[in-house]
Amino acid sequence: MRRPTLAKILAAILAALLAAPVPLAIAQTASKSKPGASKAPAMKTSKKKPSRYSVPTYADSTENDIAEWDDTIVREVAVQALGRLNGSVVAVDPNSGRILSIVNQKLAFSAGFMPCSTIKPIIGLAALEEGLITRDTMIKVGRRTFMNLTEALAKSNNPYFEILGRQMGFDTVSRYARMLGLGEHAGHKIFEEHPGIFPSAPPENGGVGRMSSYGEGIHITPLQLAALTAALANGGTLYYLQYPRSEEDRRAFAPMVKRKLRIQNMLPEVREGMLAAVLYGTGKQAFDPAGDTALGKTGTCSDQGSRLGWFASYADQMNPKIVVAVLLRGRGRVVNGPTAAEIAGRVYQGLRERNYFAHLRHAESTGHTATAPD
Known about the structure:
The structure is a single chain. By secondary structure, the chain is an alpha+beta fold. The chain has a single domain (67-366), classed as Beta-lactamase (3-Layer(aba) Sandwich). Helices cover 38% and strands 13% of the residues. It has helices spanning 6-19, 24-31, 72-82, 105-108, 120-129, 149-155, 158-168, 170-179, 207-213, 222-234, 247-252, 267-279, 337-353, 356-366, and strands at 87-92, 99-103, 139-140, 146-147, 237-239, 257-260, 295-303, 306-315, 322-330. A five-stranded antiparallel beta sheet has the order 2-1-9-8-7, sandwiched between helices. A hairpin with a 5-residue loop joins strand 3 and strand 4 (146-147). Helix 5 (120-129) crosses helix 7 and helix 5 (120-129) crosses helix 8 (170-179). The model is unreliable at 16-50 and 365-374 (pLDDT under 50).
């Protein structure tokens, strides 16, 4: 018996294929082709990829807020400063931990987001306390570029803080971050609040270096950022944030200390960098030439389907009056740390124009809740 040739085998396979039923999708495509067409139009097998950033840049950030809990003036100014941008503004008294206003309460009470470069003051503080650097220590961050802590905070230089983070190691960085309240609730009896996330091991993406420059692996809430900024402002007292939501709570309010931090000796160097950030660095949009100069730190990165813009700040340095933490979300280029700084600057300017602090002192002395002056 002769074996079939290769040509006969191929011919048999082709005949079997031609005899097989046409798949429904192909048959439908062929039936829609124009008469006389040489072949059916090509099928579209792929859909348009969704946008990397699915969170809107603009939104009504006051929707569903309960405004009656807030200080009237601070909320009015914060809402105006935020405008149409999708974000949250949290204002806190750094000397008591009392929350003065939360604009966009849904976002403020969320599970948190990567802190971006707002993690850097913590890293600088840790490196100072560990004796790794002084204010004058120059670290090589480029082929011909060296920086000290002030310049690194002002310019938000990533290599500088990545070097410090790797030198200190994950355990040391974690100890200082947790000491300042990361990974735990910032508030007392704020039942909607989330504790954020702090990793138990270095993140896979970039390890402790990237964790020290971008906050990789960490989720921080606007409340946590406001609380730790208040500790930097007041000299090292980490207060429980309190949000009085009734007349009884307002009358019974008393500051609650979570813990005292022994960081007073290290604070001048960190504050110098945060001041430089506002004077000429990434946070210069927060500068108010007619008022008390704010100190702050910007943060810009991407997380959870959106760009993020952070700004942690307080004013003023000699007599801290108020902490303002801003978080922006969206997909536009306007969503960044400098824009968040600009919003905080508008808050400080608006409070100054309304003579808020003098008015507040008068209201407190007379036992009345602060309202907008005539």
